[in-house]
Design brief:
By secondary structure, the chain is mainly alpha-helical. Helix content is 56%, strand content 5%. It has 4 helices and 2 strands; from the N terminus they run αααββα. The longest helix is centred in the middle third of the chain and has 15 residues.
Length: 77
């Protein structure tokens, strides 16, 4: 897929998942707020990261809250 056309794969649900993670600081709470499973939110973010070619979410692991990278924050804004 040509570079300029890859952005055509972005769907509203991808952006909604990213915005929910920004608000909730958690994949599971973002999933609850949107009525999705945690794995569905993870998949939507992974697809979005592949489309834009950058990490959008920090994943510290464990009970620490997740956040957005600079690229993720720019995309949400």
């Amino acid at each position: 897929m040509p570079e300029r056309n890859k952005w055509h794969g972005i769907e509203f649900r991808h952006l909604a998942a990213l915005a929910a993670i920004d608000q909730e600081h958690s994949f599971s709470r973002a999933a609850d707020s949107l009525g999705y499973s945690q794995s569905a939110i993870s998949q939507q973010v992974l697809v979005l990261e592949r489309i834009v070619g950058q990490d959008l979410v920090t994943r510290p692991g464990g009970p620490q809250p997740v956040g957005l990278t600079a690229a993720g924050a720019a995309l949400v804004a």
